[in-house]
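Data card: per-record layout.
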Amino acid sequence: MAKLWFKFQRYFRRKPVRFFTFLVLYLTAGSLVFLHSGFVGQPAVSQNQANPAVGAPAEGAELPFLGDLHLGRGFRDTGEALSITRRYGPWFKGKDGNERAKLGDYGGAWSRALKGGLSGRRKKSEPLPKAKYIGCYLDDTQSRALRGVSFFDYKKMTVFRCQDNCAERGYLYAGLEFGAECYCGHKIQAANVSEAECDMECKGERSNVCGGANRLSIYRLQLAQESARRYGSAVFRGCFRRPDNLSLALPVTAAMLNMSVDKCVDFCTGKEYPLAALAGTACHCGFPTTRFPLHEREDEQLCAQKCSAEEFESCGTPSYFIVYQTQVQDNRCMDRRFLPAKSKQLIALASFPGAGNTWARHLIELATGFYTGSYYFDGSLYNKGFKGERDHWRSGRTICIKTHESGQKEIEAFDAAILLIRNPYKALMAEFNRKYGGHIGFAAHAHWKGKEWPEFVRNYAPWWATHTLDWLKFGKKVLLVHFEDLKRDLFVQLGRMVHLLGVAVHEDRLLCVESQKDGNFKRSGLRKLEYDPYTADMQKTISAYIKMVDAALKGRNLTGVPDDYYPR
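The structure for this 568-residue chain is written out next.
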């Protein structure tokens, strides 16, 4: 036996290429076995504790202890939602243990697609608000019932998780299939079937049903912001009155007797316009301009004329248009450069870490056409297009300087400042995610459940308050901007910021920024926490800091913190 082994060893020494080929094949086979076993194995059961939050903070100082901090139980950190491609073979086992053949192509009518009133079989002691179960539906790999984004999680998929991610992206429907897959969509394009055909438990909670073999358990979502709705890749902007000078406001028009949202959006996309406006049997394309700014939305009932080619969609009227934003990029605000002459003043874009500074920089660069700088250097930001990141912060070539500093000496080095403030609960979580997961990543579950999170809150929460107080005390010319106001009314708040920077910007450019506002540093939400990580002691301490900052702002005749900062 030993002699055979030595021969085998000597053979591979002489033929190293064959050895490495053999090794690769061995590892590949092992990976396939692992994936298969992970799919057909028992689901990891976890608690479904709602109350997701997003947000976060920065690097900090040694600050007072917040008390005995205990975090609730949550989910184990496993591979998170990926773009969906089916990972199973032609057969799938249902929960009854019988093998079910994958079902064929269905097509056909879907007149009962929006039929509601079904209670579903979810656990009554754990109601899922913001959604209504409407039934079990056919699904087909060649023609999906829900055609928006999708993701899977073969270890801990829950009904709440699927609903939350679809709602965050503005979809009207969320559907679960095979116990582990989540599909989102703006309309249902399949037929309703018997409830008995949706018979697979969710991988992350056995008490709930998550569809079946080529069967979707579908929920109708109640969106917090109707403007976030989508139709495929197009974003729903709302119902708007016909502009006064239609040919100037929306320069391209096509008559479509058999009108549908798809046809108008595809037509305007082909013409390379970012807006598609449906007006009954006419499709108009254009840009958001001062003639058609999309700031005064009308009641959707005024646009409620059904599309001739779509039973469940509205196509507007000749007087009131349904408007969608296509995937075409509005290039009117994409040019950026360094200042042509050295700036005579240094203006800070100051914020506590996790308060949206990078996003604000993105908006300012689009609005002014000039790069922003930084007190620090972040290579990942430079690689994403923030070219001012490499310049020394005193170079004078950038329109403003990002900083998280809060000492008197550092603050007095600037001639003026835009002070961006965000809800501390959101900011702390955002910075924690950045610190342990990168700009668009997420902290691992072990970090949330370990000692890192309590220690982080203990150190960073006081800094959130002192950062604002220091800039109010030592700043020379401070413009206060609430992150929440910037999200809610970007046009007005960004106009205030640009005015302080001393740049004359045309309104059409600000309207362009509105349509490009997200940038490259928005977390997907697919790993949003499904429980509140803040203990009662943490909340008590943070609320005291909120009241302290609110009093300081009002004492200087500034706008106090928004109402949604507290109570928790």
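Known properties of this structure: The chain has a mean pLDDT of 79. The chain has three domains: 132-220, 230-325, 347-565.

See the next section for split statistics.
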